Amino acid sequence: MTPLFHSMEATQLVRIKDWPHAPVHRLDSRGVYMVTGATLHKQRLFGTHEALDRLEDQLLTLAKKYELHLHAWSVFSNHYHLIARSIQETPQLKEFLSHLHTKTASELNRLDDASGRSVCYNFWDTKLTYERSYLARLTLCSSKSRKSWIGYDSESVSMVLSGVV
């Protein structure tokens, strides 16, 4: 549903459409969200086991700090997926993602000796409100990883599943 905003004239209502190339992040309500984050230009910046381990470690550490219950997550060399539920009354998912991107970019740039390099590009989020959409995203998050995990191919995947709703 498109939000309504008042224009400068109080009698006019203007509909603002979401622009798909600059997603609006509506992470201010409790619930379960699926988030996909990507590196700039989809570069495979997390292409080593060490870099992937650091990304996953930061994801887990910061999720605990921000009191997010992770249902599933997978990390790849150029993107990640996670399904999380906020434990708090006022969710801090946006702050968590900002902290995750800042911290992992800093660590990766230090590891690669690439000071000031842009690492994270953007993230896309979906609030999961129906059981079927939740299960479909859970399958997506885990099945992509399992294929790569079993073969341990060049995508260098690390994946872990935890409990479900």
In short, what is this structure?
The chain has 165 residues and is an alpha+beta fold. 35% of the residues lie in helices and 26% in strands.
Average pLDDT number:
76
| Major sheet strand order | 6-3-5-4-7
**Continuous helix count:** 3
Give the C-level CATH assignment: Alpha Beta
Q: What is the count of β-strands?
A: 7
Q: What is the H/E string?
A: EEEHEEHEHE
Under CATH, the topology is which? Alpha-Beta Plaits
Whole-angstrom Rg: 17 Å
Estimated helix fraction? 25-40%
List the helices and strands and how they pair.
Layout lengths: L3 E3 L6 E3 L16 E8 L9 H17 L2 E8 L3 E8 L6 H20 L7 E9 L2 H21 L6 E4 L4
Helix pairs in contact: 1-2
From the structure above, extract its key features.
Alpha-Beta Plaits; disordered C terminus; 165 residues; disordered N terminus; globular; alpha+beta; two-stranded antiparallel ribbon; five-stranded antiparallel beta sheet
